[in-house]
What we know:
Largest sheet: 8 strands, mixed
Helix content: 25-40%
Strand order of the largest sheet: 1-6-7-10-13-14-15-17
Structural class: alpha+beta
Radius of gyration: 19 Å
Amino acid sequence: VTLWGVDEAVANEAFTRINARFRDMHRDWHAWEPGQLVEVNAALSRGEPVQADADIIYMTEQSQRIERLSGGRFNPAIGALIRLWGFHTSEYPIQGPPPERSQIRELLKASPSSADIIIDGAVLSSPNRTVQLDFGGIAKGHAIDIACDLLREMGIENAIVNAGGDLKAIGSHGERAWRIAIRSPGGGVVGSLEAGRDEAIFTSGNYERFRQDKLERYPHILDPRSGWPVRDLASVTIITREGLLADAAATALIVAGLDEWAQVAQALGLDQVLMVDESGKVFLTEKMRERMVFADGVVYETVGF
């Protein structure tokens, strides 16, 4: 968390409050360490209704909306598939062969989807016992939104909350805008831009977390429709007001790939998108092109919407 123009005592209080909130989120929203989400998934696998806190309910509701609009390219109900691939871990790279194709087919046969979840107040239930929630593609965005709301409640108007390169900027850095660099999957940066006064800038990539089997590399982002890792895009960067949407949309567009990303972006109401393919070439929307200052040697193509 980076603050500008804030009294030291107020800043320390803000850091303490955000740190405590993030600890709670890490515990309650984690897909494989003991906490509330693990308990929710255990109940769903037994076919039982289960009570959940307001954040899990909200992320489930938003997941249903984004899954529908993205045509299933974002689907947080495939936790069992992610676990099957061994991606419920913080230790990368994973070594060893992928799951058996028959195992993947068996899971996909049940078509787990967030649309299978029934929300009744604070209670979740599902007739589909293969539904297992994994908020890895949406929780960071929601967490950053919450942190920025907390800062504003404390009267702090100029800040960046950065979670491993996914960030939200509010206000400015004194007399100038916050300046943000966009990483290149191959190292270095694609370029930079100035953040607006209330913008989330999120990048999803398949180049850091993966399974390695001899010479074969399997990225951690899975296509919920095929059950296999996606390959033709190395990273996607989204800019929008809401961190939650930017986070989920970045995953959805990586799954959509080079052929479908533009139509999925439009379905999600996004007009500031930058993609990097496996060769390092950049594809981006007109509105994103207007803001970018590219690094030397970057090859790019503008898509007209």
